Amino acid sequence: RYGRPEEGSKTDKRGKQAGTLISSEIRVLCENITEFGQPVPDGTTVITFGELFQLYTSISNKLVGILLRARKHGLVTFQGEMLFQRRDDDVVITLLKSLRELYEEMGYEPHEFRNA
């Protein structure tokens, strides 16, 4: 347990709350890609970074961080290590799983699915 907070401590609780927030942000990102992106024949959904950035200007200033975490979890893919407004507006973001698959992995009940 080296490097891990003691179970039930304030640090442990803060860590769990942060994990829940991150999961929520990634879920919303995937929902937005599904809603505003384009489905492609292989079953995935795509949207450009520019389109997603415009959508997020009114939603969140943390889009790139959320995208990087979602990629780390195998939910999205895109070219490059980092994305920048204007320079990368045409970079395609691909959602690799359906919302139904995502919700099932996150432990949501079917009645909680949004447009899955």
From TrEMBL:
Signal peptide: none
A GO term for molecular function: actin binding
SMART domains membership: Costars
Gene Ontology cellular component list: sarcomere
GO biological processes: positive regulation of Rho protein signal transduction; positive regulation of transcription by RNA polymerase II
Chain ranges of the Costars domain: 20-96
Entry protein name: Putative actin-binding rho-activating protein-like isoform x1
